[in-house]
Amino acid sequence: MPKVVVTQPHQLSQEEAALRVKDLATRATAAYQGQIKDLQQQMEGNRGTFSFSVMGFKIAGQVDVGPEEVKVEVDLPIAAMMVKGRIEAELKKHLAEALQG
Prior knowledge:
Layout: E1 3-9, H1 14-31, E2 36-44, E3 47-54, E4 57-65, E5 69-75, H2 84-98
Antiparallel strand pairs: 1-5, 2-3, 3-4, 4-5
């Protein structure tokens, strides 16, 4: 299964970064109203998993919030390879916005 890996440096406390990452899924769902469905998210401390459906594709991944950066790995179905670049760009954009000091 293809994978998108995005890392974003931050200058927040690890706890604050984790809170912002958790809130990011909620904000993305609101921003892409009607496109993101079945959002599931679980955070335990500084690590978490998520899944959702978008454009008919089931997307799943994990997030690791470190002291200096956040790493997000997303597993994409083969059929989503046509939009891999768009998914990666949107993820980078929203992650950077969420982690701004």
